[in-house]
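Researcher: I'd like a structural prediction for the single chain below. Treat it as a standalone chain; there are no partners to consider.
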Amino acid sequence: MPDADVDALAKEVVDWYVEWNPIFATYIGIHGRDHLMPRGTVDAELEERARIVEYLRRLEAIDRKGLSPGKRVDWGVMRNAFRLWIFGSEELGLWQSMPQGAQTVGDALFPLFMRAFAPLPRRLESIIGRLERSPAFLEETKGRIRTPIKIWSEISLEAAARLPGFLQVIEATGKESLAGPDRGRLEESVAKTGEAIRAYGKWIESDVLPRSKDRVGIGGAKFRKLVRLRELGLPVDEIYAVGKKYLRESKRALVEVAAAIRPGASVEEAKEIVKSDHPARFEEALAYTAKAMADAKAFIRQHDLATIPANEELTVIETPAYLRHVIPFAAYNSPARFESHKQGFYMVTPVEDKPEMLREHSYAGTRNTAVHEGYPGHHLQLTCATLNPSYARILADATETTEGWAHYCEDMMKQEGFSADPKTKFVQLLDQIWRACRILIDVDLHTGKMTFDEAVDLLVREAGMERPGAVAEVKRYTYNPAYQLSYLIGKHLILELRNDVRKRLGKSFSDKLFHDTILYAGSLPMKYMHEVFDHKVRELSKWQKGRL
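Model: Treating it as a single chain, here is the predicted structure.
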């Protein structure tokens, strides 16, 4: 049966990738390979690509028309993932233009610290295993770099310079948690990996940078193709127009909200009022964060806006000392697909000797964060997504849905009456301006219409960012084409979808129905989220006719 063929292929792909990439296995909550590293050779990249090409061929041999509605979505999700996977390897070629060895080692170690799925000594044992394999992995990755790009090489050099500090944090933690041979093994593996990373940095500096090409952006043709493959349903020109529209409207609205905060206040004066309204001590800021998360969760239940799973939990904690240097402000860690208890952590870093950082914990900003990061934003959406039984949807990670959903939730909760203070609306508009700027930069930077410095200037001028922060932002934008535009475009597409579903369902529409459908479908590309709703609307219409 075709449906069974789709399910079998999806499970085969996930099972293969769990074996192929141990970091992926850790991420989705399969922990038998937490001590291993992936292969870093050119041959490994080519073998992976060939495997995905073959999976795509086998998928397309399945007749999509003969599938049930749910399996047609799964088929589309897999094709979307495979085509983007192949495009990234064949045409973007980041793997041969950016020396990412140090970043990958960090990615391999970080979730083992972040996620408390097992006692720390057990996780440290896995970390030791990865550390012991990291020097060989780093050496393997050197052979990949054939067409290096200057800015990406510089970013990688910075990563290599920072990572040994993280290793020292791991070692210090191990001294408190391990004893005897395990402690000695950790110290030795930290020393050897640290030496290998420093050598890797010297290799970038002396070998890679001198032969790196000075280029920013992937080019207009590739960018437009990437947007088509993302299946957003909008061409690049329309996406850009959406960004311009939101920027214009948000700036105008910000002036109005500033006056609501204090009559006659300018935008800058209102911003100072908002940031100055914060807890007096970090302990109070941490407690208020937990309270805002709990309030948002209770508000959803009271207003019946979504179904919250019984086995979920979001814990707000102070960032552990061994992670503070890599989490300067806050971070959310989501539940894993194959871990039964769906516990997420929102970690907030103490201000320590920088009391001015309490300005980043304003009451209005914290209430908005509770919605975006917690309920019904990232935590609820990512938790619900893990409960979908489809293996195909493990491969779905559409930014326009995850980030777009969290951005949509800010406005939705405000409209429903959560946090009526105009200061919260002010924070939301500031963030919306920043996300509109991201659309403009994403498009113009990668199509050659904007330089790196011009992108930084735009963030400083329009989004009010400090220049060092803006520089760091744009660096990330250079190697994530068509990613940054997804935040605001995602919100825009979700709003359009909601209006369409409301119109088609009429009196049968409810916010809870709309929200639950998105939450439990998984992080699907919007094209396939539309298909999910099309089927649901048809089924509800049949049910209504049957009652008449």
